Amino acid sequence: MVISNLINSFVSIYMGHYQKAFVIFLICSYFVYPPLILSSSTDGYTRIRLKRMKLNKDNRVVSQTELTHSLRARYGNNLIGSNGLDIVLLTNYINTQYYGEIGIGTPPQMFNVIFDTGSSNLWVPSSKCYLSMSCYVHSKYRSGMSITYKSSGQSGAIEYGSGTISGFFSKDNVKIGHLIIKDQEFIEATKEPDMTFMTGKFDGVLGLGFREISVGNVATIWENMLNQNVVKYPLFSIWLDRSENEENGGGGEIIFGGVDPNHYKGNHAFVPITKKGYWQFNLGDVLINGESTGYCQNGCPAIADSGTSLLTGPTSAINEINAAIGIKSFVSQEFKSVVKQNGENILDLLQNELSEQFDTIRDSDIDCGKAASMPNISFTLGGKDFVLTPQEYLIKDGEGDGTRCVSGFMPLDIPTSDGLLWILGDVFMGSYHTIFDYGNLRVGFAKAV
């Protein structure tokens, strides 16, 4: 994808502006490092328990992380000028928010953050955030309370669909579980859009993508973990608990430097990374009830993105899948308007386009009771078919009798040099434990349990 220095930023974070609620994530895995997997010791790696916020039916917003990818791919360096801004849409969708706790500073100041494989920066609210109400309902970083704080001096701003996050870079130690990452650069946000952040349970975002999409080209948390030798093996794994079990927070786990064999069964199928930045790889065939759709028989570009709630793909393919499910009203989120390089307001265009899409999504509900008659949908990765059953790809929108469901598949046309991009978000990662193997530049998937 074509991405400028600042447009390569907090892609795939989390937010929206209209209908339906959000975020799930994370998965974990196995096969690369047997001694680590078989050991019950935590030596050399750390696990972060993820918490989950239940669906708030009064604050339902559609996942729009993918639109950032679309904007960047379509408009590239012409999307944003030299004003130092980036357009990003925070994701929120129908189920819940999954987040974990980290500490910044000495002594550590605690924050709930979303661990996002689709972005590469860490940001949290700053104590110098005075004018944004959302800063007053979340934890704020106070540099004066940390003896390891270092000033950076570089400013940063990110333009969202419904407002701006702006602030400045700072350096401090970051504590993740028992790991201490020293002198990590992060953004102290001094301005935040209030609409979504007022209700979000997370304070900030911790990106786990590659440095190639890092705002300011600063070293990522994961890069510094490796450089400072705080993890034994160069991989991390994500397990997203999509069950209704609320014990221990009912969220999931992310493990840095290892995997937990209790979170999956069988062996992982690995696919090599084809492009660094996002965790991008090659997707094989797409099947409906075991029958090929023919869309990716020759391979399609895809990414594993814990910052995207749904599974997205080209309009023609996803519309065929949704038609087989019994959903007729989903339409493409491809932008029909052309942005003029020297004038048109991209945010107004974005809001108008999204408004139309949200209207169609309101009509896309389906009776959950019809799941038994719906087909399985499969995706071929590393020569293995990964099946999603109706119970796995439908997202409940309510509780009790007569519960309505929404399809976990959303059409989205994102052009790349390798073809239209597929995003395997939380709908897929919730069913398949995922290893992000940085050392061997590959991603592995196995059935989550």
Automatic annotation (TrEMBL):
Lipid metabolism among keywords: no
Cysteine disulfide partners in this protein: 129-135, 368-405
Pfam families named among the record's database cross-references: Asp (PF00026)
TM segment ranges: 21-38
UniProt keyword annotations, A-Z: Aspartyl protease, Disulfide bond, Glycoprotein, Hydrolase, Membrane, Protease, Transmembrane, Transmembrane helix, Zymogen
GO molecular function, one term: aspartic-type endopeptidase activity
SUPFAM superfamilies: Acid proteases
Gene3D superfamilies in the record: Acid Proteases, Saposin-like
InterPro entries per record: Aspartic_peptidase_A1, Aspartic_peptidase_AS, PEPTIDASE_A1, Peptidase_aspartic_dom_sf
Gene Ontology biological process terms from the UniProt entry: proteolysis
Ranges for domain Peptidase A1: 98-446
List of catalytic residues: 116, 305
Stated family: Belongs to the peptidase A1 family.
PANTHER family xref list: ASPARTIC PROTEINASE A1, BETA-SITE APP-CLEAVING ENZYME, ISOFORM A-RELATED
Name recorded for this polypeptide: Peptidase A1 domain-containing protein
Species, as recorded: Lactuca saligna (Willowleaf lettuce)
